[in-house]
């Protein structure tokens, strides 16, 4: 440990993690979009009365997308610090991180189709 690193207690670690989440929230429009989408999905899950295990899948999907978005932000910050000027590899690192967000978002859409498709289809049949 260098002289600039201080041992962090549990409470301090939580505070620093919260600071990181708040930074991501304030600076990343995509994270805000995903959070709003998550709220809508949770409302839809309540409305269609998902089972306990279906709720687990929904929460997993939401958590995966939020995690990927926050990690993408961290990677972008580190790349910008290491390579402030444009470099093709720096750009590719950012693109790969964004690709991870895309994969988790698509995964979540597929989970959503499987979970919400049948009850929404039944609802549409009832109102027609």
Note the topology.
Elements (H helix, E strand, L loop, with lengths): L9 H18 L1 H19 L4 H31 L5 H40 L1
Helix pairs in contact: 2-3, 3-4
Structural class: mainly alpha
The total of beta strands comes to 0
Treating each run of at least 4 consecutive H or I residues as one helix, how many helices? 4
Specify the CATH architecture.
Orthogonal Bundle
Query: In what range is the share of β-strand residues?
Result: under 5%
Mean pLDDT: 93
Which range best describes the helical content: under 10%, 10-25%, 25-40%, 40-55%, 55-70% or over 70%? over 70%
Q: List the domain count as a whole number.
A: 1
Biggest sheet record: none
Q: Using only CA atoms, what is the Rg?
A: 19 Å
Give start-end ranges of low-pLDDT stretches: none
Distance between the termini: 67 Å
List the main descriptive attributes of the protein structure presented here.
0% strand, 84% helix, mainly alpha, globular, single chain, 128 residues, 4 helices, Helix Hairpins
Protein architecture, described:
The chain contains 4 helices and no strands. It is globular. It has a single domain, classed as Helix Hairpins (Orthogonal Bundle), CATH 1.10.287.3610. The termini are far apart. With 128 residues, the protein is mainly α.
């Amino acid at each position: 440990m260098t002289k600039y690193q201080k041992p962090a207690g549990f409470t301090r670690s939580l505070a620093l993690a919260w600071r990181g989440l708040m930074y991501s929230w304030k600076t990343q429009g995509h994270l805000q979009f995903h959070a709003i989408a998550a709220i809508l999905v949770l409302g839809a899950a309540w409305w269609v009365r998902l089972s306990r295990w279906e709720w687990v899948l929904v929460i997993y999907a939401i958590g995966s997308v939020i995690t990927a978005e926050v990690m993408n932000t961290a990677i972008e910050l580190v790349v910008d610090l290491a390579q402030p000027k444009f470099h093709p590899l720096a750009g590719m690192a950012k693109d790969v991180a964004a690709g991870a967000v895309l994969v988790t978002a698509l995964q979540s859409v597929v989970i959503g189709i499987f979970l919400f498709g049948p009850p929404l289809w039944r609802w549409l049949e009832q109102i027609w």
